[in-house]
Amino acid sequence: MFLSVFEIFKVGVGPSSSHTMGPMTAAGMFLRALKDECITPYRLGGSLHGSLAFTGKGHNTDRAVILGLDGFVPHDFDMDEANAALERVVHTKTVAPPGHGTYAFDPEADLIFDYELTLTGHANGMKLWARDSRGTLVREQVYYSIGGGFVVTAEEMQQVEALQGTIPAEIPYPFRNAGVMIEMADASGLSIAQMKWKNEVVRSGRKHLEERILRIWDVMDKCIIRGLSKEGSLPGGLGVKRRAQGIHQALKAEARMNLAPPHVINDWISAYAMAVNEENASGGQVVTAPTNGAAGVVPATVKYFLDHVPGASRKQVVDFLLTAAAIGGIIKNNASISGAEVGCQGEVGSASAMAAAGLCAVMGGTPRQVENAAEIALEHHLGMTCDPIAGLVQAPCIERNGLGAIKAVSAASLAMRGDGTHLVSLDTCIETMRQTGADMNEKYKETSLGGLAVNLPAC
């Protein structure tokens, strides 16, 4: 299945692409279905299952569904308007999405966290329903939030599984895995970014394509800047303090006094990544890269490249993101980017592989070196569990993004030291991640039922 750069990198809202953006999107899909089928219900409601139930409170999943049923969408989200809408819904026990009438909806009674029933299609499952004034069910739909903000119905989930690995015939460079990608690069003489560009032109059109890709970076960069400017504690009750601003201020002071130790670049990279994920944890605007939980890795690596590598230019960011998106698409099609499905290796590990590939590409790496960089980064994230404390995308998630970005830079550097020849292929590594995720105990896959999420109180 071909995935556009604009599907891998989507502008949205924190704290989670699968638990916040996805459910909000699903609610919007349900509203469109009602309108398309000319159904005018009296009451709306739904239920959350699997990981959406277990960590839904910490991920603001209930808030996302409420706002989605009231007409909010992730890519054009205003926090002040959302807060006002939530107060109105709670007070009136109704939702009033634009283009619809007013529907009865009591968040306390009509949105259920079902911890018993796990829907079979995916760990992130939810049902939405509509009833008439007599309580008769007039529409019900199961949705799955499959990671990175992607949402499918139960019926579409079967098609997704059937189409896994297929690419439309019109795509000029239909690489479904890394091995084919390298073969096509060798045969064409093109870089991975150049092949991905040609694929994007077919799907998205040439007009303003470069500007649209650079806008992705602009949103990422603004998120870094916001995160570096804020202090205080993150919401959710854990009392986790924002650290990016303090680290950044200390780094700038050290630089002015020429006191920085040689390894200090790692702290710069971590500060950039943590700034993004602190914004994500606070419900701010971020870009899925490939998910919200891993949203800091790619931006931090781009920022490192632009601000710390001599000769780097903004124009090269296009090649960076195209290359990263190519790797992200291969991982998603052959394994998963969902923490609820394969653990944090699928999120931070995938993001690190994407960032390593992008950095290697803009540093002049060959396609084989780029593939090697992605493999090195992913290989050393295998087995990483997803164990968010209290279901919040804060600890250990924020620091993990910093370490993921540092690994990406190191992986790109190591790959550039070789000629691209290596023992373990990226495809082998991706398949190993898929198998590891399948074998991983469910309590370590974004349920907050294992790992740090349960051991912290005993420390």
What does this protein structure show overall?
There is one protein chain. This protein has 459 residues and is α+β, with helices and mostly antiparallel strands. It folds into two domains: 17-162, 2-Layer Sandwich (60s Ribosomal Protein L30, Chain: A), CATH 3.30.1330; 168-458, Orthogonal Bundle (2-methylcitrate dehydratase PrpD), CATH 1.10.4100. It is built from 20 helices and nine strands. Helix 10 packs across helix 12 and helix 10 (209-229) crosses helix 14. The model has no long low-confidence stretch (mean pLDDT 95).
Estimated share of beta-strand residues: 5-15%
Mean pLDDT: 95
The CATH architecture of the largest domain: Orthogonal Bundle
Under CATH at level 1, the class of the largest domain stands as Mainly Alpha
Shape: globular
Question: Which strand order spans the largest sheet, edge to edge or round the barrel?
Answer: 5-2-6-7-8
Radius of gyration: 22 Å
Cα separation of the termini? 45 Å
Q: From the helix content, strand content and strand pairing, which structural class follows?
A: alpha+beta
Tally of strands: 9
Helical residue percent?
Answer: 40-55%
Stretches where pLDDT falls below 50 for ≥5 residues?
A: none
Largest sheet composition? 5 strands, mixed
